[in-house]
Amino acid sequence: MQNNLKILFIGDIIGKTGRNALSREMKFLKENYSPDLIIANGENLAGGFGMTGSTTEAVFASGVNILTSGNHIWDNKEYAFLLRDERILRPLNYNPSLPGKGYGIYRINDMDVCVANLCGRIFMQPLDCPFRKMDELLQNIKTKIIIVDFHAEATAEKQAFAFYLDGRVSAVIGTHTHCQTADERILRNGTAFITDAGMTGSIESIIGFEPEGAIRRTLLQVPQRFEVAKENAAVNAIFLEIDPSTGKTLSLERIFKYVKD
Questions:
Q1: Is 95 annotated as a binding residue?
Q2: Among 154, 165, 227, 250, which is most buried by a count of CB atoms within 10 Å?
């Protein structure tokens, strides 16, 4: 009989502050949760916008196994090279001619685990329908354990997506807004859900960035330079325990861990 699969999902890592915070707290996370698989959203790794080779290497070295992303994956010109790495995913519902894959199937403890990444459409780009793209994916894979990073803006769209997939995937984890929500739950048919896993970065900030730029953009309605905030970091994450025989989530825990000074 296989043991339950333990998965740790790290909320959006924001720049150097987030990378350092995760590196410092990874020992605590591993010792306290003993995860079999660690997934993190990394679309903001490099200065808050996109990824680079050095930033992804640092996060993998800290213990992360798979990086998901979102609309900011395209912000750094290195994306074409980075997306050759099967450990890095870009949203499935972008044009298929773009580099990279929107899902991967990974062998973990003699179990196949599918990790999928999709973007929402409300208040975002008019991409292919994420609901229909997930239908297509589910028709073509046999994996029972399926973790979905749904990178979206609107709360209602995230909730609708989770209820639409309830019983067909193990978890729908919302990302993108960088504000951890307190609505973690297991839906009626065994799918874990949280509207947003939050972020790993400075909490003395506006979604991980120094407040001044965001305030000026709001007041003046013109572009401003955003700088990653540096003070008072925290790690936001979700811990899941999944039954490998059914793919259903048995338990979940929302994590908000302040970084030790």
A1: no
A2: 165
